[in-house]
């Protein structure tokens, strides 16, 4: 802050800019306080930390939610594990992957998905696995039904 005031004195920052800076800062502080009014005051939400949804079946790194899909946090090193949010296979049954689905899938290797829609428009439930193809590093869905 001292440096900023010093900068104003030197004319580096215009007064309005300085006020904007203060205003933004105050706004953020208010939002933070509001968010923190839960039972655990110490838990400050941080956008830079991602929830670990489970271990990647490929490399055991945490799987995190991204903008377009649920993917392995080790993707920078070439891990290709990802479940796209607009997954075509699921979309063909009018379903989108959810965080809950991904968690269960990573934990158990299989997930019971309710309310899938068949080509004839009938609702049904099925167990889905997401398995690595033997020909390449990509994954695809396998459907199973309870006997
Ligand atoms: Zn991985």
The helix-strand sequence is HHEEEHHEEE
Distance between the termini: 68 Å
Low-pLDDT stretches? 40-44
Q: What's the gyration radius in Å?
A: 23 Å
Q: Could you give the order of strands across the largest sheet?
A: 1-2-3
What is the number of domains?
A: 2
Proportion of residues in β-strands = 15-25%
- Overall body shape: elongated
Q: What does this 3D model show about the protein?
A:
The protein has 147 residues and is α+β, with helices and mostly antiparallel strands. It folds into 2 domains: 34 residues, no CATH class; 82 residues, no CATH class. 29% of the residues lie in helices and 22% in strands. The protein is built from 4 helices and 6 strands, in the order ααβββααβββ. The strands form 2 sheets. The protein has a 3-stranded antiparallel β-sheet with strand order 1-2-3, with no helix packed on it. Strand 1 and strand 2 form a beta hairpin. It is elongated and about 75 Å long. The N and C termini lie far apart (68 Å). The site of zinc ion has 8 residues, from loops.
